[in-house]
Amino acid sequence: MRVLKTLSVPLDRVEVSEHTQMREVIGVVGGFLTPAAGKRSDPRRVAVQFARANSQLVSEAYVVQNAPPAHPEKKPALVRPSTAARSPAGYHVQLQQSYQGIPIYGGRAVVHMTKDRGVYFYTNDLHPARPEAEMGKGRHLTADEALEALSSVLPWRNRARVEPRCSKVFFPQDSSDLRLAWCIDLTLEEHTPISDPADRSADWRAIVDMQSGDVLQLLNVSLYDWSWARVFYPNPIVSLKNEELTWDAQLPDSAYRMIRLAGLEGSGFLRGQYADTRETANRVREADGQFLYRRGERGFVETMAYGFVSRVMNWLADRGWGSLFPSPIAINASAAIGDNSKFLPNSWELRFGGGKVMDAEDASIIVHELGHAIQEAQVRGWGTCLQHSPVRAMGEGFSDWLATVYFAQERRGYHPTHVGDWDARGYLPPDTHLRRVDSSKTMDDWSADEHADGEIWSSTLWDLYLRLGGDSGDRQVRNDARDTAIRLVLTSHLYLSDGRRETIEYVHGLSALLDADRFTSDDVTQPGPHERTIRDVFAVRGLSP
Ligand SMILES: [Zn+2]
After folding, report:
1. pTM here?
2. CA-to-CA distance for 392 and 387, rounded, in angstroms?
3. Which of 155, 363, 422, 484 is 20 to 30 A (C-alpha) from 241?
């Protein structure tokens, strides 16, 4: 098998080599593509063939096999397909690592292939070692004994709604040690509304060491809903359509909107699947899950920040981007950093500053900072490139665009392209906006300032959204245009994931968008269906690949 050399990612950024020696191009989407195996091929078989042909990608102690073996003890260390997921970009086959028929916890690799089964991406979390030291030594706890050991840490007896589910796993304790353990899933009796924050009613997962009985890991995996929050959506100027509104105006109830908060874990804090306001000083706690504050009250900006982060992340999850965040992002909704906000990639935190209008009172500021976090979650190190480099300017542009396009319906006909239009009312002197995404700038206006140059990028993406149907009078067409634009833009970020981001320029971002269009379409051998539109909106800005 040979790799194709006809992809649109510039080849000077990709080292293409023989299919069997391509360790160095792993992670560069578009850098390789194995010949299509055809739409009739079983994606699992293709994944197995790929992994076998590239055995250096799989941990050496393991054998890649298609079917479960009749006698696992004869081939004890195996990697074989577990699931095959379908997405707009094709198939994603998960390979699971096991030893003597017992799965290795988290020991997975994923082979990504196009709809007609050409492999173009591979991710690997396989454990390098065999768990030999663990086998056949000492006495092992039975499942009942493990449940008894667990009850001292998590009092679950008399509260389990269904029989606890227990399965054997090898659990990686540190980089080299694999412990034989029981993986226990529990569902405990719920009490709603939650009256006692210390109540441990929930879905839980526990890992109990099979020899020592130690609880190696205990996770609350439940996702509670429906709590309510009172927020600006996106801000009072837009809700009231009042251009004269000053930062200190008395606001009527119609300036607010009630939203549901999904995914709160039930502690009474604003803590859930995607965010945790733990960095906010004097954070609020509502045992009944009702976060109903007004501007100026403690908890309002914290609720805004949590509400919009979780809302946007859930919205993206509904569009196929459910596993972007490695962990809930920490939020400081009232940080002492002046009238400014930040995303901190190393501490995985969002910080929102003050001002006459606090930053987290303006939903577009929240979504802008969240945009940086999303990009970092997609491509680790996006934000640690040189200041004012094109890749950072693309980050500013993307974040402004996300903050605008997300509220396209609410802003329709009134401040449709504004970012920070409420925050800016608190500036000295007051202003109408922080930035806009409808600038007429082209590449001739390049100024080597990441926020100014970001306006070229945000405005191009805004044009793209309009050209895809965002300018339609039909709401469904506009929503579809937004979904298409989000799919293209987020997918394109994945194609800018190599370690040479300092060399990335806007033209590479354009190529990545063309690739995203192609690889999420039905026929990846052809340019994508929106190729002409994408090229046109970029050409207006002085960019062509
Ligand atoms: Zn920014």
Report:
1. 0.64
2. 7
3. 484
Domains 134-220 and 227-540 share a fold: no
Ligand 1 centre to CA of 310 (Å) is 19
Query: For domain 227-540, which architecture applies?
Result: Orthogonal Bundle (1.10)
Choices 3.10.450.40, 3.10.580.10, 3.40.630.30, 3.40.640.10: CATH for 134-220: 3.10.450.40
How far does the centroid of ligand 1 lie from the alpha carbon of residue 465, in Å? 21
DSSP alpha helix (H) spans, 142-181: 143-151
What is the average per-residue pLDDT within 164-191?
A: 84
State both tokens at 35: 């010949």
Closest CA to 299 of 338, 331, 327: 331
Lowest-pLDDT range, 49-63, 110-124, 137-151, 172-186?
A: 49-63
Preceding amide of 193 cis, omega within 30? yes
Which pLDDT belongs to residue 28? Answer: 40
User: Domain residues of the chain, as ranges?
Assistant: 11-130, 134-220, 227-540
Ligand 1 center from residue 317 Cα (angstroms):
23
Mean pLDDT of the chain: 85
- The CA distance from 76 to 428, in Å, is 70
Largest CA distance in the chain: 78
C-alpha 417 – ligand 1 centre gap (Å): 16
Burial class, 70, CB count within 10 angstroms (exposed 0-12 / middle 13-18 / buried 19+): exposed
CA of 517 to the centre of ligand 1 (A): 26
